[in-house]
Amino acid sequence: MPNRLRRRLNGLWSLLFLVGLMLAIWSGQGWWSSGLANDAIAPQTGTPAQLVQTGVSLYQAGDYQSAIDRWQRALQSYGPDAEPSQRALVYENLARAHQQVGQPAEALDAWAAATTLYRELGDSLHLGRTLTEQAQVHLSLGQHRRAIALLCLPATEAPADACTPGSALALATATDDALGEVAALGSLGEAYRLQGDYPEAETVLQRGLKLAQSSGYGQFEGALLNSLGSIFQRRSRLDYRRAEAASQLGLTGIANTFSDQAQGQAQQAQQFLEQALERAQQQGNLAAEWQTRLNLLPLYRQQDAPTAVDATRRRLGELITQLPASRAAAYGAIAVGRSYQPVGTTFRCALPGSEAEAQTWLDQGAAIATQIDDHRAHSFALGELGHLRECQGQLNAAMALTQQAQIAATQGLEAADSLYLWQWQAGRINRRQGNAEAALAAYTQAVTTLESIRTEILVADRDVQFDFRDTVKPLYRELIELQLSGVASLQAVAKQDLPPSASALESALVTADALRLAELQNYFGNDCILNPVAQARVDLLAQSSNTAVISSVVLPQRTALIANLPNQPPQLVWIDNSSQLRDTVVQFRLGLEAFYTEPYDTTVAEQLYGQLIKPLEPALKAGNITTLVFIHDGFLRSVPMAALYDGSQFLIEKYAVATTPALTLTTAAPQRPKNLQALVLGSSQAVVAAGRRFPPIPAVPTEVASVLAALPGSQALLDEAFSEAQLKQALQATPFSILHFATHGQFSPDPAQNFIVTGQGETVTFGQLEGFIQSGNSNNSQIDLVMLTACDTAAGDDRATLGLAGVAIRAGARSAIASLWQADDATTAQITQDFYRFLKEPKLNKAQALQQAQIHAIRRGPSVTPGKWAPLILVGNWL
């Protein structure tokens, strides 16, 4: 790796250091609010008014809980004739106070009560502002769709920037409320940013910034600039990850390009944030300065700028003594405490000599959390203090703090998202203390907790997706490693008497399946909520008497292969040196992609066969196995297993081969439709789409014609006739069992960039395709097969291969056949023709039909190298 790239990658650090830890800049009191709502009540006399005013004084002094008590008593004291507007204002104050002490459920109740009162009054201006603040609470909970629905909910069949009447932005526009409009735009921009829709977020935030400047609300520029800076921070992080992936493949030029892009994005982020800092200082807004400096801290660390880092920490130390105790202050203190850790995965240890400074900040965070009675913040502070003791080798003290963190995390539902972290930490500590049984129990508890909140955690913040490998993946992998410890390889045990080792292998398989589900959920985010198919493992294995399912788990030091065979206990194979295996896999994949090279060198293919298949061959032969289904992990997902070579034959010549992301996500197939009909969509001409030129695919017309000939009653849309509108219309008009795409497509680290290209140069994402299928004819049954013959997936990019692994799920189909790279189009057209011919044979399932088609390609001679036939892989149900 070039030194320049290494320095930049080593400097990468994420402020959003734990799942859901930091609140959005827009949350809290309500960033646009001029203060607590008390002016309308002050002129009155009597007990309720006095309670309200006392509550305001307590709030301003930072005693939020006492303020809540006074306002609740004021509401109880109001008589039946009290003005609704007075009660609405008190509910607003209550909501803001509940937000400050980390009680979002109570805050939402209060905002809902205020909203109801403003609707009764017909006060559209205050109704719109209240909806915006309600949306901000949803944002703090990671509920982005709910926030967007309250803020705008884009109207159908209307201009792109039009919102549904009654939403916050629509109300602000209708009442000429520039302040409310700036607020709604700022919150809407944050919602899009946290969803990962950075282009839309930037557009909305720039619109809000322009309005704030032109309408005299420049005091809110800082918040908008902060959000814009955060967008470029996330873009920078994504480009750094891409640079890292390219560097691992030895693609120095591409790595440096991404690294340069990342540096440019980071510089843009810094410009926005330093402008926000300037605004905060000009206005004397200490809370805004606090948040902005917290956002700048990771950027200065990324630049290896110790002077700026030290100055930022010093100023933050001054600010925290001047700010009232609040959730933002508590989390900020914890963030600064963690900033003494080196860049890297979660639970790294503070740099030598900095432990005392780290502890000072963490102690401050814990004290603030205790003061405001915020269980979630207290849980994070105690847990991080426990980790500090863990790093110092003070394991008994570490365990005591970790257990306290767990207790704090169980005090409220909202705090449960930290519980799994401290159960995980307890597992690590037990492991270091040699308590294997206690360690396994703690790890199991951690995964169980994470599974219970899986959807909320994994889609809560698109930013967190980039930290998924640090905050979630290692937990599953470490548990699997514990479950497999002590299990001997390739144990042959009678089915009737399964020893503990076989049970451990089954447990490891269940955990591995849970990891696959978590990875895909995290990858797709809010766009696709995944639910396991009940009894899928049992159902599928019962239907496949001659099928072996081989799962891989890549651990830091070595890689495990676990084989499930009919009427046999699971069997384990260890492959030493995961790093070396990855290098071999990348070399194999890149060699295949150079398919124009003749003759093909099978050396690497034989080496991988020896590692991945040969140790299992005796069991495969004993079980009369004819089909291999792989559930691969990490970099192994990019391996076209069919092209492995035993010295005389390719694997596909011996076994039908399929892959699936997880058995619990694979739908058991009913009997295959007797009348197979396909909607065939092709693009043979060069098109420009998504900012790049896609070359022509001359053999597409031949491929399309062969599908129509093989499957009578099918329909085709070719070139100009293949548009997004025509695709949608065709799916609505006729039920098809097969969708066949002979067109360019790609799978990307960013799921929003997974698409197919129409003949008119449009891009259709798999999420859109799923929507088209679901909105089709009411009699349209589930698609049985989606075939994509000209897609491209970056070699060695683990996130990109997640898109390929989930294509059948995302397209709403039982199975998919997709290409790992854009192969020789003439060979692909012939394989397609042969596949459909074999698929019509009742005795052959989809895996066997593809096997026969690829064997026929091999037998056409040495000019048809593996790179021409191997990229087509079957994903999902293989029957």
Written account of the structure:
The chain is an alpha/beta fold. Strands 6, 9, 10, 11, 12, 13, 14 and 15 form an eight-stranded mixed β-sheet that branches. The chain has a five-stranded mixed β-sheet with strand order 3-2-1-4-5, sandwiched between helices. A two-stranded antiparallel ribbon has the order 7-8. α1 crosses α12 and α3 (64-77) packs antiparallel against α4 (84-100). The model is unreliable at 1-35, 38-45, 459-466 and 491-499 (pLDDT under 50).
Question: Mind sketching the topology for me?
Answer:
Elements: H1 3-10, H2 47-60, H3 64-77, H4 84-100, H5 104-121, H6 124-140, H7 144-151, H8 168-174, H9 178-195, H10 198-214, H11 221-248, H12 252-283, H13 286-302, H14 306-320, H15 327-338, H16 355-372, H17 375-391, H18 395-409, H19 416-432, H20 436-452, H21 454-459, H22 468-471, H23 473-484, H24 500-524, H25 536-543, E1 547-554, E2 558-564, E3 571-576, H26 578-593, H27 603-612, H28 617-622, E4 627-631, E5 656-659, E6 678-682, E7 687-689, E8 692-694, H29 700-710, E9 715-718, H30 724-733, E10 738-747, E11 755-757, E12 763-765, H31 766-774, E13 783-793, H32 798-805, H33 807-810, E14 813-819, H34 825-839, H35 846-858, H36 866-869, E15 872-876
Parallel strand pairs: 1-4, 4-5, 6-9, 6-10, 10-13, 13-14
Antiparallel strand pairs: 1-2, 2-3, 7-8, 10-11, 11-12, 14-15
